[in-house]
Amino acid sequence: MPKPVCQLKILGMPVLLEVNDLEHTYPDGTQALHKVSLTLARGEIVSVIGLSGAGKSTLLRCINGLVHPTAGSVEFNGHPVTWDAGSLRHLRREIAMIFQHFNLIGNLSVLSNVLMGRLSYQPGWLQPLYGFPKRDRELAVIALDKVGLLNEWDKRASELSGGQQQRVGVARALAQEPRLLLADEPVSSLDPLTADIVLGHFVNVVRQEGLAALMNLHAVELARRHSDRILGIREGQCVWRGLPGDLTANVLKRIYGEKYDC
Q1: Across residues 84-89, what is the average pLDDT?
Q2: Rounded to an integer, what distance in angstroms lies between the CA atom of residue 26 and that of residue 76?
Q3: Model confidence pLDDT, tens digit, residues 194-228
Q4: Are strands 71-76 and 15-25 parallel, antiparallel or unpaired?
Q5: Do strands 15-25 and 31-41 pair parallel, antiparallel, or not at all (unpaired)?
Q6: What mean pLDDT is predicted for residues 130-140?
Q7: Interhelix angle 134-146/192-209, nearest 10 degrees
């Protein structure tokens, strides 16, 4: 029986994430995902492209448990993912999420925002009121240095530019010490030049740390430049997968429709 269109495995690289026949139907009856399958190897950067509403965000949210799949399965690092509270707490230590709108606390310092990535390691949610442990602070400083923002550690997050704020979001994710980074339209609110720079920082960090990344991108050219592989999703289904260089005009029309302006 042939593999589903998006079932990808890279020879010689151990699989970190495996998604099989994932489905999700919202309470209003909208089917956001239909039998989506994919694999992601350690060290890979894979982008998901498609129209708004194609199911890209739902896919990422199912993987980290923000949304519970209606059907299908997810395996992470060789273990089946369940969606009970205890399992999710552990899973979210190893799968970090980077959001479209940064999700920073504007009146807190840059360092304090990065420390939020350490919350799931605390013995209780009130622990941060008494200060984070020394190791957590050290990890936050190291993460800021990796994204080139160490000198901004004491500024309020709201004082930074959009590109800098997203790099704080990346640093917060790195502070979790994850194996996998999920990025949901991480640069869609930035101008094209800044978006390219921020994604460049992101890719460099992923490579240096030996992580894996799965990201949704709106701009096709950014996906071409910053991905090892690309998945195309249309109306909740994978309709194409391949290398950036194989993303031709005909392929784009398959993903986005005949009216797509190539």
Answers
A1: 78
A2: 24
A3: 999 989 989 999 999 999 999 999 899 999 999 99
A4: antiparallel
A5: antiparallel
A6: 86
A7: 130
